[in-house]
Amino acid sequence: MEVEKLSDRQQRLESFLEPVKAAHQLEDDIRKYGLEAADLYFEDIDSDWLETWGDDDDDQGYSK
Asked: Which of 30, 53, 56, 61 has the fewest beta carbons closer than 10 A?
């Protein structure tokens, strides 16, 4: 029982720390690369995504 409890706590801690580590990595990349860090995290950043924003709102899965 004690091992199971520790395992559950360890698992919850690890799942909590995962996004924290990702946020730290993003911070480090922004410090290192500046605005160019966006290229590391977003595909097709130079496309017309802003002009076409909302065009797919009629697709299923979006709630209004």
From this structure: 61
